[in-house]
Write a structure and sequence with these properties.
heterodimer, A: five-stranded parallel beta sheet, 14 strands, B: alpha/beta, 5 strands, 19% strand
Chain lengths: 454, 164
């Protein structure tokens, strides 16, 4: 509940202050209270706040009136200098009918003359950031600049690194996309690095303050799409020089009604609104499966780019790995590279999560390694326990050896439990519900069988 | 499936909103909504790693505005399965042009939608349900199912030449 404002001249200010979740009140220069917001009324009690609005400072002081004593506590400090805010503790007050708890207030004079109001904001600290939109816009603008600076440059893009014909082709296409304003349709597996490529393509526009609005099409209906793009549309409508990019992820999953909305924006803003699409399906596949209306597909796919899967260009892996190690190494670390056995493990792994999974694996290894070279034991368990000829992982239409299969499952569970227990085997045995000696016996058997296989 | 909501705010406005509307936005009736609140953005960011997939609501403006913004960006950069919302509390002092710029910037940083008041969660209900549904299957796989998926013939049932 909001109490006041008493004067009509401060009603607009009162409306703004109502929305604040912290206790806020206004004190006139003559010491009268003009406004208490809902949070303040809650803190004081509605009855007391109502009475304080009607209260007038007494000519004689001190008095025994409890209301005077409350008002005295709430008044700005005598030391408050014109134009300079000050924080003060409003002390606790107990009376038969009223009780207020202690609270720290920031007192801000709203004008430099002695006739002005003083704004009191509860739970605020002058030394902290004041929660105003002005401050927020500054912070956000600063942060956005930092975000845009972190958009990868083409030469730093992991998926573009390599000497294979696929890498060379991808580099040429992405460079072309970055140099022009055409719509781009990126296809590739989930995790292929499409997002980073899209950001790198947009980087040049970002340097000219053009916005990038990411949209996850798989979650959108027409209304949500409209809401997501509307800030950008407003900017474009407000200035004929403004440009912007919409990054449409999972475009192949965009609902039909949302596609109509998209089409409308494409026609309205033409070249000022650029689209970069990410899709698991190619344009042809989208059309064959009726995922996208043909007119939209043709407009979006001015420049179709296919990002090859990591497994299809495995010869580039060593260069990519070296690049990622360099990127992920912290300033206090010195990592020269990766040992051959570890690289062999990476080369034989099928990379279902593609480039992003490799990036995650290198990040993990860099974190785990204490030496200058990444060894197999520094890689994530999924990679180091993977076997190319593993009957569990290779889909072949042949019978399995049930005993071996179950042993493999058991081993995987034990490995996971030991890892989860931070290497504590007793704890791992407890989690698995077996004795420690049985766990140790099993681990010995695994080591022996691994030795025999080698 | 456990559907986590992480709320980073100084008060309890958005916590109440999430408790009120969150259960209606679950994908299935047997899904369970879990809610955690944080005062510090860094604590919220750390929790994301443990509980994702999750819906994350960041209150803005906040005393630590720059820390919140950094957390939003870091959460987004981590490629985690999260849906981030920025909850504005001082909309009344913000004109439409500034409000627009604010939203544009927040979306570029990785925010899915900007919320002005608790009711503005409702238009996002469909998206939130789709989000939970998308992550439901991975979360729901039992170890037995995971093992089954890895059997050499597991996918044959879905292929024309496979066993029926």
């Amino acid at each position: 509940m909001t109490v006041g404002p008493r004067s009509t001249s401060i009603r607009p200010l009162g409306k703004m202050l109502e929305a604040i979740g912290q206790p806020v009140y206004l004190v006139a220069a003559d010491g009268r209270f003009d406004f208490f917001n809902a949070a303040c009324a809650l803190w004081l009690g509605a009855d007391l706040a109502e009475q304080l609005l009607k209260w007038k400072p007494s000519a004689t002081s001190p008095t025994s009136d409890p209301l005077d004593r409350v008002a005295e506590r709430l008044c700005p400090p005598m030391t408050l200098r014109q134009g300079r805010p000050s924080t003060e503790l409003v002390s606790e007050f107990n009376e038969a009918s009223w009780r207020i708890t202690a609270k720290e207030f920031l007192f801000v004079p709203l004008s430099s003359d002695a006739a002005g109001w003083t704004l009191a904001i509860g739970d605020a600290h002058w030394n902290s950031e004041i929660p105003t939109n002005e401050v927020d816009l500054i912070s956000i603008s600063r942060q956005l600049t930092a975000v845009r600076q972190r958009y990868p440059r083409l030469q730093h893009l992991g998926p573009l690194i390599g000497s294979s014909p696929q890498a060379e082709h991808l580099r040429q296409q992405v460079t072309l996309a970055a140099d022009c304003q055409a719509n781009v349709f990126l296809t590739g597996r989930e995790g292929c690095g499409g997002l980073q490529i899209a950001q790198a393509i947009h980087k040049r526009q970002a340097e000219q303050h053009a916005s990038l609005t990411p949209v996850d099409c798989s979650l959108m209906d027409a209304e949500l799409l409209q809401a997501a793009i509307s800030p950008l549309i407003s900017r474009l409508a407000g200035s004929t020089h403004a440009t912007g990019t919409v990054l449409l992820r999972h475009i192949d999953q965009l609902a039909a009604d949302a596609q109509a909305t998209l089409r409308q924006y494409m026609l309205e803003f033409d070249k000022r609104l650029r689209f970069i699409c990410l899709s698991a399906l190619t344009v042809r596949e989208c059309l064959d499966r009726d995922c996208i209306q043909p007119s939209i597909a043709l407009s979006l796919a001015t420049l179709p780019i296919h990002v090859p899967a990591l497994v299809d260009r495995i010869s580039d892996l060593p260069m990519i790995v070296q690049h990622l190690i360099h990127r992920r190494t912290k300033p206090n670390q010195t990592i020269e590279g990766i040992a051959r056995p570890a690289l062999d493990l990476l080369s034989s792994y099928p990379w279902p999560g593609d480039f992003d999974e490799l990036d995650g694996a290198i990040r993990h290894a860099v974190r785990e390694t204490g030496s200058s070279v990444i060894q197999p034991q520094h890689l994530p368990l999924a990679i180091r326990s993977y076997r190319p000829q593993d009957p569990l992982a290779v889909a072949e239409d042949r019978p399995i050896d049930l005993d071996r299969f179950l042993l493999r499952i058991e081993r995987e569970l034990i490995d996971r439990a030991v890892e989860q227990s931070g290497g504590n085997r007793a704890e791992a045995a407890r989690r698995l519900g077996i004795s420690r000696s049985r766990l140790l016996r099993r681990l010995d058997e695994y080591d022996a069988s691994a030795g025999a296989e080698d | 499936m456990r559907c986590h909501w992480l709320i980073c705010e100084s008060g309890d406005r958005w916590e109440h909103a999430a408790r009120h509307f969150g259960p209606e936005m679950l994908a299935e009736s047997d899904d369970q909504m879990l809610l955690k609140t944080f005062k510090q953005p860094t604590d919220c960011l750390a929790a994301i790693t443990d509980v994702a997939p999750a819906i994350v609501v960041w209150q803005l403006p906040a005393f630590h505005a720059s820390t919140v913004l950094q957390a939003i960006e870091m959460a987004n950069a981590g490629n985690r399965p999260i849906l981030q919302f920025a909850a504005l509390s001082l909309d009344a002092t913000c004109g439409p042009v500034r409000r627009n710029d604010l939203e544009l910037a927040l979306r570029e940083m990785g925010v899915f939608a900007v919320l002005d008041h608790p009711l503005s969660l409702l238009p996002n209900a469909t998206a939130i349900r789709k989000f939970w549904r998308r992550h439901r299957r991975q979360d729901n796989l039992t170890l037995v199912q995971q093992i089954w998926d890895r059997l050499p013939w597991a996918n044959d049932l879905h292929t024309p030449g496979g066993r029926k």
